[in-house]
Amino acid sequence: MNLLRRELRESRRATWAWALGVVAAVLLYMPFYPNVGGSEMMETYLRMFSPEVARLFGLDQMASGAGYAQATYFGLMGFVLLAIAATGWGSRSVAGAEASGALELTVAHGVTRWQVVLEAVIALLARVGVLSLAGSVTIWALNGPAQLNLTVGNLAAVTTALFLLTSVVGAAALLGGAVSGRPGVSTATGAFVAVGAYAANGLAGLAGVPWLARLSPFYWAFGQDPLTSGWHVGGLLALLAAFTLLVLASGWVLARRDLGT
Amino acid sequence: MTAAVVTSALSKRYGATAALAPLTLSVGAGQVFGLIGPNGAGKTTFMRLLLDIIRPSGGSVRVLGEDPRRGGAPLRRRVGYLPGELRLESRARASELLEHYARISGPVRPGATERLAERLQLDLGQQVGKLSKGNKQKVGLVQAFMHRPELLVLDEPTSGLDPLVQKEFLALVREAKEAGQTVILSSHVLSEIEAAADRVAVLHKGELVRVGALAELRASQRRRLRATVAASTALEGALSSLERVSAVSVVERGAEAQLSLLVEGDVDALVKALARFEVRDLLIEEPELEETIIGYYRGEPS
């Protein structure tokens, strides 16, 4: 676990900065629920959009605290922030280290390529986990004051979904790096999966191809509205399976190719 | 003597380019083995193959008796490696980074890191990312030496080091040899490693040009001699007739002549021939590798 320890130590500052950003995002949205959600103004506002567009941004759910938190944070700002952070970490840990030459020196020591990938993955999970918790704990603290009426069980369910979803994004970046060794490709892979998942989920309805949404990790995470309806094991298992596949593929590829050429 | 490294027709290709043409050589245990050649000669490729950073396209290699790929992590704990392009970017202090490398390499004796750092004049309290190129190189050297590996693979170890530290480095190599460790080191300048190496392999464009004891190589080295001599009409004739002297040029400037020539191997006859004239200045330069050993063995004009 020496690589893990070093990775966490090197990115300690970045992790705290991201956590602060996530907390700030929550503080920016949640306290305004009593003024926005369920108010008359909101209903007037909603009538300005077609039902499809309103659904795309979760506006139709804004009337409840759970719907509001989902639409503003879990399905939007929280997802964006965590996906960007996870992509950055997934890209740095292998492709970034390879491009800088650090990976060459690391694997010249008594560590295996699989160890490099697995410890990078654990470090990724730990940091994405910190961010997920930072956001959700802040929301829980505001639950009463902001009249969100969330239950702790549902909040845990949606937090797990966000955590797994953004871990999948990070693992995609890792795989992009394991295959190419280039930070640009790695970051682009993570971004592609994040944007693709979001777009496929949101636009499938608008485009009249509802089955498309079911291919999206974003749908696996949030399609059943866990913040309103609790745990949905199927979607979480799908995320876990995708994550595992991405990690195994990363290890398999990295163990087989030349480094730093 | 057992061999620390044995290769048999070991090669590496990238598409159509041969980074290393089939190479067969053996480095005896306890030897200091030098790899000489310009950039792109295949030195780095060879070293990376030993560490399983890249995999061969053909042939085989045994490092300390094992295949690098199958030997895996346990084998690499017995090796110390300094990469050719060492870019250490970290906010950690040098001591922290070295502790990290100590944990993932063979066991490091207490105090070994500090002693090495002191000898190389490296401040362990500095942030690694803010160190100069030479100081980063020292961090690289410390991590390669600190666990007293059976085999040291050092790619351009002296690059960026000032002369005093270079000298200390050569002392470290000598001590490693005395302790029975094998050292493979590369350079594009022969003089940087000639004080340390027992045997030298000359690589050029991925091919082994020559391998042998250093003394043999030096005997066939071509050096450039420059001299300022009192002008004399007999000068050019006296020098051109000498064996192993070529490219003689004499430029007269008033009462003086600027002399330039290439001499191969022993300089005795040349110096004696020169002594018959009034020599005002004399300089024998070490040749650039490109224009000497390699050009010579391939019969190319220098």
Description:
The complex is a heterodimer of chains A (261) and B (302). In chain A, helix 6 runs antiparallel to helix 10 (183-206). The mean pLDDT of chain A is 93. With 261 residues, chain A is mainly alpha-helical. Chain A has helices spanning 2-10, 12-29, 33-36, 40-46, 51-56, 65-100, 102-107, 113-142, 152-180, 183-206, 217-222, 226-229, 233-256. The longest helix of chain A has 36 residues, at 65-100. Chain A has 13 helices and no strands. With 302 residues, chain B is of the alpha/beta class. Chain B has eleven helices and 13 strands. The radius of gyration of chain B is 23 Å and the shape is globular. The two termini of chain B are 38 Å apart. Chains A and B meet through helix 1 and helix 7 of A and helix 2 and helix 3 of B.
Average pLDDT reading of chain B: 88
Cα separation of the termini of chain B: 38 Å
Reported for the largest beta sheet of chain B, the result is: 6 strands, mixed
Structural class of chain B: alpha/beta
Could you say which overall geometry of chain B the principal axes of the C-alpha atoms support? globular
Q: What sort of overall outline of chain A do the alpha carbons produce when their principal axes are compared?
A: elongated
Contiguous runs where pLDDT drops below 50 for at least 5 residues of chain B: none
Lateral strand order in the biggest sheet of chain B: 5-6-7-3-8-9
Distance between the termini of chain A: 27 Å
Order of helices and strands of chain A: HHHHHHHHHHHHH
Write down how many β-strands of chain A occur, each being a DSSP E stretch of 2 or more residues: 0
Number of helix segments of chain A?
13
